[in-house]
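Homework help board

Subject: predicted structure for assignment chain

Our instructor gave us this sequence and asked us to write out the predicted structure in token form, then describe one feature. I got the tokens but I'm not sure how to describe them. Can anyone check?
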Amino acid sequence: MRKSTRIKAAVFAGIAALATATAVTGSANAAVEGGSGCLTLPGSWRVVDDNTKETFLGSYHGSASAASGTVNFSSPNNTTTASHGEWKLTGCGTYSDTDTALLIGTDGKANSTITFKANITVTGRTTANFDFAYQIHQLDGTLVTGGSSTGKGYRINVQPR
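My token output:
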């Protein structure tokens, strides 16, 4: 290979690497800031309940520019299934979600549901405040009880190996 061809190939490879790095970095920033400069919710979160100190793990599915998407959370106990629901953008950095899980009785079968409704404010690139209410219903829809709490959320970021 001639020297000028090797130089051109090296320059091309360098430009391609820079373009790839810029695209990857841009995507990571967009996932947190969106196109509007507002902090965004999509991604995975560890949420610690302010009252019980229990930790819940959740994922808000959607692109950084999405105005809505689906949500799933796992509970810190073995009597609650993973929840399923939806979220939506309500303002710059603010969101609402509703998700429902089955509650498992001592016989190992679902005997009721728990529905969470949350208002979420993303307060930083990796933090959010959760203000939520919940209701427990029998499978026939009869209300059993309800309550509310608040929690702090921490984005689960990629960690280098």
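Reply (TA_rk): Your tokens look well-formed. For the description, you could write something like this. Residues 1-31 have pLDDT under 50 and may be disordered. That's the kind of observation they're looking for.
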